[in-house]
Amino acid sequence: MQVLKRASLAKQKVDPIDLTGHDQFMQHSKGFLAVVEAARPNINEIDIKQARERLAKNSNAILIDVREDNEWENGHTIEAVHLSKGILERDIESVVPEKNTEIIMYCGGGYRSVLTAEISQKMGYTNVHSLIGGFKALLDADWKMEPKD
């Protein structure tokens, strides 16, 4: 499967049904992919290079890992804050009280973070990004990691 460098699969005329997951281990349902694709036009996706630049230029930017607890415990970026998709809506305002804070969200492969970026925007956050490729892209880019808890 190709690593997608895009703002939206729809803009590239890629059918999300053709995508079975970001890697060989993850299978995504057609319904999930459809929901993600519907959200993509509403959010901003950035790649690894852009994430590095944004974090370097803005000391107030926050990298949020939206993966589940067990994924976080198996390793995460050293500078990330953990706020899983399951509790994001409940807790984001206490973790990030300023709605204009720059936020970069990542998940395992770049799908769930699209959804969390969209919901964060619906909650009033104005500077939210989803990391293309997610944790897998961070690993491939030799991002500094915190080892397994």
Overview of this structure, please?
The strands form 2 sheets. Strands 1-6-5-2-4 form a 5-stranded parallel sheet. The chain has a two-stranded antiparallel sheet with strand order 3-7. The protein has a domain at 44-146: Rhodanese-like domain (Oxidized Rhodanese, domain 1), CATH 3.40.250. The protein has helices at residues 30-39, 48-57, 69-73, 88-95, 112-122, 134-140, and strands spanning 44-46, 62-65, 76-77, 81-82, 103-106, 128-131, 145-146. It is globular. The protein is built from 6 helices and 7 strands. The chain is an alpha/beta fold and 149 residues long. The longest helix has 11 residues, at 112-122. Helix content is 34%, strand content 14%. Helix 5 links the parallel strand 5 and strand 6 (128-131).
Task: Give a topology summary.
Blueprint: H1 30-39, E1 44-46, H2 48-57, E2 62-65, H3 69-73, E3 76-77, E4 81-82, H4 88-95, E5 103-106, H5 112-122, E6 128-131, H6 134-140, E7 145-146
Entry summary:
By secondary structure, the chain is an alpha/beta fold.
Rough outline: globular
Strand content: 5-15%
Helix count? 6
Q: For the residues shown, what is the average pLDDT?
A: 86
CATH homologous superfamily of the domain at 44-146, by name? Answer: Rhodanese-like domain
Placed side by side, the strands forming the largest sheet appear as: 1-6-5-2-4
Radius of gyration: 14 Å
Under CATH, the topology of the domain at 44-146 can be stated as Oxidized Rhodanese, domain 1
